[in-house]
Amino acid sequence: MMAVSALRAPSFKLRKSATAVISDDGSHLVQIAQRVVVWDVPARRVLAQIKVMRNEWHVAISPDNSVIAVKGENGELVFCRSSTGDIISQTPLSDRRDTGGCPQFSHDGRFLFDGSWNGMLRVWEVASANKIAEVEFHGYMITSIVVARAAGTFFAALNKIGDGKGGSRIVRFATAGLDRVGEVEPLNAQQCQRLGRRHIEGIAVDAHANFLVLVLNGGTLEAPATIESLNLQSNTAASAALPSPLHHVRGLACGDDGVCVAAVHESTPGLSFKDFAERRHSGEYSHLHFYSTASMTPLARWFWRDAWMLNFSHATGGLAVASRDEPGAYLADLSADELHVHARARPMAT
């Protein structure tokens, strides 16, 4: 299992952002700042800056790093060349708020799998931006899609529309298409409420589809959310509860060496701005929580101001952290011989 060590100086600093996505091989990193920024990771330089729509919400990069998919607030898609930002194709503009979760490319980069808040799971051809397949999950909204690239398997989180009492689902499907969509059933009663699985706040998966990690809301208003790890090979589950109902997960990532990480924020209702600022700067506001994926045993906790989206490179084990409060960083190496827990580690220190 990969150990978690004290952070060294980051490879380079990113721009302030809530979104950062690493390519499969770790050579490219894409983030949404004031525009979409494509980084060459080994060279620590910007390859392209892309502005093709007013409000970018999600980005994805193809497995061969040649194409960037930019998704807007209404669900429209624009496919661009990563090296230049030139537009390859784009879907028509939409006036509906139908965003959904982050899209994912097929293994050959020819197609994009995308979900919407009205329950539509679609496959788009990159070269033409034509829709080639569609499946509707009536009464659900698709909030997350993740891919286990080595296994060629996609997972989508479906939350019941208009019902806060559960009923959420996880479906899986293959790169080949949407003709065979299967269900990932809950593995223990803790994951469920009266109507089924509790509301899903986020999902992540390792490259080989050994583990699927979920963030589920609390069973009651007084109960904290939990992070659930599903072992898809042995059909077993492990769970870790957040410290309190005031703690929320804004980013989740699952590595291939037995470690998953969550960006955890603590809400501060009723605090004055001064008290809130003091808590934030003292490290009581936002942390990265590292867990053993198999057992959900806590491994480390790092202070990271206003961390959001997290992404592992499955080839290098590096981690991208997006932050809206200060520049995020790409961490090239998380391995160490011994495990160290640093409650006050400052990842951005140089």
Task: Give a structural overview.
The chain is mainly beta. The chain has one domain (19-331): Methylamine Dehydrogenase, Chain H (7 Propeller), CATH 2.130.10.10. The protein contains one helix and 29 strands. It has one helix at 273-281; strands spanning 19-22, 28-32, 36-40, 45-50, 56-61, 67-72, 77-81, 87-90, 104-105, 111-115, 120-125, 131-136, 140-148, 153-160, 169-174, 182-183, 192-193, 196-197, 200-205, 211-216, 226-231, 236-241, 247-254, 259-266, 286-292, 298-303, 307-312, 319-323, 329-331. The strands form eight sheets. It has a four-stranded antiparallel β-sheet, with no helix packed on it. It has a four-stranded antiparallel β-sheet with strand order 5-6-7-8, with no helix packed on it. The protein is globular and about 50 Å long. Mean pLDDT is 82; it is low at 2-9 and 335-350.
Could you give the order of the helices and strands? EEEEEEEEEEEEEEEEEEEEEEEEHEEEEE
Tell me the structural class: mainly beta
What radius of gyration results from the CA coordinates? 19 Å
The share of residues in helices is under 10%
Total helical segments: 1
Question: What general form does the structure show?
Answer: globular
Beta-sheet strand percentage?
35-45%
Question: So, the CATH homologous superfamily?
Answer: YVTN repeat-like/Quinoprotein amine dehydrogenase
The assembly state of the depicted protein chains is single chain
What order do the strands of the largest sheet run in, or round the barrel if closed?
1-2-3-4
The domain count comes to 1
Any idea of the CATH class?
Answer: Mainly Beta
